[in-house]
Design brief:
heterodimer; A: 563 residues; Na+/H+ antiporter like fold; Rossmann fold; 6-stranded parallel sheet; 25 helices; 69% helix; 4% strand; B: 586 residues
């Protein structure tokens, strides 16, 4: 057995327990792997693993690029969420300035700036998927911010591929990058389906074909003298495809990616020269200072700057804060950029170590701030650190002063809109509360009365004149909002929405008149229909036709973006 | 300080050439293994010489064998294998003895080989190829069929024997028989220990650990891999652990990987794991097959090419006949006997390893190693076709075969689903439908990716499969294609489209969607009913609001009470509801 196999074995054996602990405490996987790398680094030499780690990087970027939703770019621009750019500039400059202040070399400061400015995609999106719905404003905001940052990261990788920013390199590098992207588009359009046809029904050959494609792009990038990451990115774009047809391919790639990416993250941890253990006092203190500074920048300054920018752009304080708290970590792209620079000799070992340490720390703290985000926001808001301006709520809201005996509808989505229509049909006064700036125009133009503000804020309820209201109907599936509404000291009846049965029952017990639970209704309808079909009361075609016309009925009177 | 890494071109060339060869093989209906081996011959030193063996390719091909055995282990549920254990031992030992004699005899009859060389050749040809047989069994989904189990069992026993022989050869010329006996005893004890450790773990620690992490897809996969590497590492370094006691012994990493997999197979989550490990295994095994031919110069490889072909032509039928006689002797039916034998006619990659070690130990010249490599490549290639078409061959020759076999029937095989109901996802939506389906269908299979749900389902007596429906194995396991009723509570279009694609034309399909465009697409793909919870909820809420504002307090109160009752005791058909709900909808 080769030395390399021993190294890989030890790597995974060490990583196992760390992953178990992380899973036990619901912490993300990436920092667990990096931390296990610290331990593995003490047992094995990381150098032979570097090549495998590079495959990890390539596969990480490759699979990420393969899933990019290109239409998202347009949405981001339309939403004006290019604010992310501002955040990168501000935090990046602060990071670089911090480096200069500590006497780090100018090239190193560039990397410090990048590490401070970029946030993690894997950690960030994993948190989003687990924690909250991306349908909520903050989820969408955080996703857009990550997305813009990732694209910038790719450009940074391309530009820093030679470890310097010399003009003689940048021009050809950009040309090479553009050529690869063009090749990717061509492959995607003409070659990809050919591979699919050649592979026939064999997932094995399909996966192999796509890995070969990756190898070609990575090889081309190396040949052109630009970073393999850019090659992998282009290869990913080249295989972008509706996953339905190639289910086996995309599932298989994920396994291969997970294996190599684990090697990458552990190796990166193993490359760290650990302070105090392997280093003298002075060097250790300097390294910890750098790492500490980066942690503060990524975990405190970055969300603060992002929040400020988002509030300035017109988002209300809570959504802005909660979205920003999703960006309070160092990105795995920063790790890729750092390891690449270290290999090129463009980055000093101490700055590299600081970046890795800071990444591991912030990825853990980030999952904690995510868990307690609502509490953090409450705390900051109560102390007056974050204040949304009431002027804007007033400016955008339109509620008659004498409104009374009205219905307050929280959320203007499918349910909210339907409820508003019902009120209009019956000629009953109502007020809609909506906090998403994207829906602002629709709300203000379509509704008789509306408050554009956050349902968590007192002022919003004041504006809606909830004291005089007859009924509050919340269509938002969010526990904090539901609890907030129940805690309003008003005489109005309250109906809420819940995502699961336990919560629904709790809310009923806590005083809600009614709690809607869409899945329960769906289950009921499903059971009724299955019974009808199985008993022979309804033929399959009858059912199908009935359901389809029902669907078209919905489609007819629901606006496009809510369908 | 670390140095700059460039990704080696070698691996890229291997992947590319294997892909191209694979496509050609697919087009012409040849097995992919042949394509990979030939790709290796073409790019290796024997022909173009553009790729050399590197540490990385070595690693990947080693991992290929290890993962292949790990994957195989994951498929072996003990209760399904136990009954063939004793026949397997009775088949494999005489088989190896017979083939050893046959191999030695053939070698002696061929001019270039002396006695020592013939003994080594005899020792090298005894085994059938784990890589070929298991890969083919996996590809054909026959690893857990009766003949599959017999072959796998025999291969594992051969594996133990290889390990022993390697240990003896590595120690140089043995002084006496006692030394051989000691090595044998130590290896057997080690195998016993590692088996006990694996099975012990699968009964004690593993269920708790994996239960906890099974819901987390990535962690689950990586911890399983870590578990495999633990066994690989221990098997490989067992010598280090034993050295202080003055004992020298080795275990193969394949044996370790198999045991690691076997331990996991006893858990209810093994199906999901199979699907995750499979693609990785395919990739690594590909590297293994390509690199089989990468080691040798053309001159060495072809020094005794005529002899290799003659030996191959003699050994393959002999192997077949020996296996056929022994399996039949153990009382298996004629089909199992035939399939189990025809699969095993090739010379193993272990043969090459045994010869390589013998070459390093100075027993034989390099040309014998070339002969062995060629013999292995030749017999593997030929046998792949026999395995590929084994069922067709059986049907063709069934009357002849039946004349030669006994009438015994060895029980085996498992029940398969047909005309059943498949439900994807256990939640508020599907929960109510399950009892209805259970009344109407003999089998209701529920696929879910949450451990707790699986427990609940099994308690209630449904067939539950733990896993992600996107995985082909899971879909196959639930026998989606043969189902009469399909219900999915996933709102992901990918899952539902996959379901509709696999579903039989006559099957009834209920799915869920969140968006109207998705629902339209699903109807277009053939769904009979698309449930859309948000729209249902919106309608219901609007109805209630209307009643509330029109001050029909009694009606509303009753309706709401019935909804709350539904929340508390999710009975899908509360009597009160039909009346009230009907009234409200109008």
């Amino acid at each position: 057995m080769s030395e390399l196999l021993t190294a890989v074995s030890i790597l995974f054996i060490v990583a196992g327990p760390f992953l178990l602990v992380a899973s036990r405490f619901d912490l993300p996987m990436v920092p667990a792997l990096v931390l296990s790398g610290f331990v593995a680094g003490a047992i094995i030499d990381a150098d032979p693993l570097l090549e495998l780690a590079y495959y990890g990087i390539a596969l990480l970027v490759f699979t990420w690029a393969a899933r990019i939703d290109l239409t998202a770019i347009r949405t981001v621009i339309v939403d004006g969420e290019l604010a992310a750019l501002g955040q990168i500039l501000v935090v990046g400059s602060i990071g670089a300035g911090f480096g200069l202040a500590l006497g780090v070399s100018p090239t190193d400061t560039v990397y410090l700036g990048i590490a401070a400015a970029l946030s993690s995609t894997i950690v960030g999106t994993a948190l989003l998927q687990r924690g909250i719905d991306v349908n909520l404003v903050r989820g969408r905001l955080a996703q857009s911010i990550h997305f813009v940052q990732d694209l910038i990261a790719i450009v940074a990788v391309l530009l820093l591929g030679a470890g310097t920013l010399e003009a003689g390199y940048v021009g050809p590098a950009l040309a090479g990058g553009a050529a690869l992207l063009l090749a990717a588009v061509l492959v995607n359009r003409y070659l990809f389906d050919v591979i699919g046809q050649l592979a026939g029904d064999s997932d094995e050959l399909m996966i192999l074909g796509v890995v070969a494609l990756l190898a070609l792009f990575v090889g081309a990038a190396e040949f052109a003298g630009i970073s393999v990451v850019v090659g992998a990115f282009a290869a990913g774009l080249a295989i972008r495809h509706d996953p339905i047809e190639y289910l086996g391919l995309f599932n298989g790639l994920q396994s291969i990616r997970d294996f190599f990416v684990a090697i990458f993250f552990v190796t990166i941890g193993a490359l760290v020269v650990f302070p105090f253990v392997e280093l003298g006092w002075a060097a250790s203190v300097e390294k910890l200072l750098l790492a500490g500074g980066l942690v503060v920048l990524a975990a405190v300054v970055k969300p603060a700057v992002t929040t400020a920018i988002l509030i300035y752009r017109g988002h209300e304080a809570r959504s802005a804060t909660l979205a920003s708290l999703n960006t309070d970590q160092v990105s795995e792209f920063a790790l890729i950029i750092a390891i690449q620079a270290l290999m090129l000799g463009a980055l000093s070992q101490s700055v590299f170590d600081a970046i890795i340490l800071a990444a591991a720390v912030t990825m853990v703290t980030s999952s904690l701030t995510h868990r307690y985000s609502e509490e953090i926001y409450r705390m900051l808001a109560d102390r007056g650190v974050i204040t949304g301006s009431h002027d804007r709520i007033e400016k955008w809201s339109d509620v008659p002063d004498d409104i009374a005996d009205h219905v307050v509808i929280v959320g203007y989505g499918r349910q909210g809109r339907k409820l508003a229509e019902t009120c209009e049909e019956l000629g009953h006064p109502y007020v809609v509360i909506e906090n998403d700036p994207v829906h602002r125009e629709a709300v203000t133009s379509e509704c008789e009365a509306a408050v554009v503000g956050d349902a968590m804020e007192d002022y919003t309820w004041e504006m809606a004149n909830v004291d005089e209201a007859r009924l509050v109907v919340s269509t938002v599936d969010s526990q904090p909002v539901s609890r907030r509404i129940l805690s309003l000291d008003v005489s109005a009846d309250v109906t809420l929405r819940a995502g699961d049965r336990t919560t629904a029952l709790e809310l009923v017990d806590a005083g809600a008149l009614y709690v809607g639970h869409p899945d329960l209704l769906a289950g009921q309808q499903l059971a009724t229909q299955i019974r009808a079909v199985l008993d022979g009361d309804l033929t399959r075609e009858e059912l199908r036709n009935r359901q389809r016309s029902e669907l078209e009925r919905h489609a007819d009177h629901i606006p496009r973006h809510l369908q | 300080m670390v140095t700059e890494v460039a990704l080696t071109v070698d691996l890229a060339i291997i992947v590319l050439s294997a892909t191209l060869a694979g496509f050609v093989a697919k087009r012409t209906g040849q097995p992919t293994i042949i394509a990979y081996i030939l790709a290796g011959v073409v790019i290796g030193p024997a022909a173009l010489g553009i790729v050399e063996v590197s540490e990385l390719t070595d690693l990947l091909s080693e991992l290929g064998l290890a993962f292949l055995l790990f994957l195989l282990g994951i498929k072996m549920r003990l209760e399904e294998v136990q009954h063939v254990l004793s026949p397997i031992v009775k088949i494999s030992i005489p088989q190896m003895a017979a083939i050893f004699l046959a191999g030695m005899g053939v070698a002696l009859a061929l001019p270039p080989f002396g006695l020592v060389e013939s003994v080594i050749i005899g020792l090298a040809v005894m085994y059938s190829s784990t890589a070929v047989v298991i890969k083919m069994l996996n590809d054909k989904d026959e690893a857990t069929s009766l003949h599959g189990k017999i072959d796998v069992g025999v291969l594992l026993i051969q594996d133990i024997v290889v390990v022993i022989i390697l240990a003896v050869l590595a120690a140089g010329q043995p002084d006496d028989l006692a030394e051989v006996a000691t090595t044998l005893a130590v290896v057997l004890v080690l195998v016993a220990i590692i088996t006990v450790a694996a099975i012990g773990a699968s009964r004690s620690v593993l269920p708790t650990v994996f239960r906890r992490i099974a819901d987390d897809k990535e962690v689950f996969f990586l911890v399983a891999i870590a578990w495999a590497f633990l066994f690989v590492f221990v098997s490989d370094n067992v010598n280090l652990f034993l050295e202080p006691f003055g004992i020298e012994a080795y275990l193969s990493i394949e044996m370790g990987a198999f045991m690691a997999g076997l331990a996991l197979a006893q858990l209810p989550y093994s199906k999901e794991l199979q699907d995750r490990v499979n693609p990785l295994t395919d990739l690594f095994v590909m590297v293994f097959f390509v690199s089989v031919a990468l080691d040798l110069e053309a001159a060495q490889l072809l020094a005794h090419w005529q002899e290799a072909i003659i030996a191959g032509l003699v050994l393959m039928p002999v192997k077949f006949l020996v296996f056929f006689y022994l399996i039949d002797w153990q009382g298996f039916d004629s089909e199992t006997t035939f399939l189990g034998s025809i699969n095993m006619i090739q010379v193993s990659e272990f043969g090459i390893i045994v010869t390589a070690v013998a070459f390093e130990g100075g027993f034989i010249p390099a040309e014998v190693l070339g002969f062995m490599t060629l013999l292995a490549i030749f017999t593997m290639s030929v046998s792949v076709y026999f395995v590929e078409f084994n069922h067709a061959l059986y049907e063709r020759f069934e009357p002849t075969i039946n004349r030669w076999t006994g009438d015994d029937e060895f029980e085996g095989g498992k029940r398969e689903y047909r005309d059943h109901a498949v439900v994807i996802g256990y939640d508020e939506v599907t929960k109510n439908a399950l009892p209805l389906l259970a009344d109407h269908y003999e089998d209701v299979v529920v696929v879910d990716r949450t451990v707790e749900h699986i427990d609940t389902l099994e308690e209630k007596g449904y067939d539950a499969i733990f896993g992600d429906f996107r995985n082909a194995t899971i879909r196959k396991d639930a026998a989606v294609k043969k189902a009469d009723f399909l219900l999915s509570s996933s709102v992901e279009p990918v899952v539902n489209e996959a379901l509709l694609r696999d579903a039989d034309e006559d099957a009834m399909v209920f799915v869920e969607a969140k968006r109207i465009e998705h629902a339209r697409a699903l109807y277009d793909s053939g769904a009979h009913c698309v449930i859309m919870p948000p729209f249902l909820a919106a309608d219901r809420l609007a109805d209630y609001l209307r009643v509330y504002l029109e001050e029909e307090a009694d009606t509303l109160e009753e309706a709401i009470d019935s909804d709350v009752e539904l929340l508390e005791t999710p009975d899908p058909f509360p009597d009160t509801y039909d009346r009230l709900g009907g009234g409200l909808d109008e």
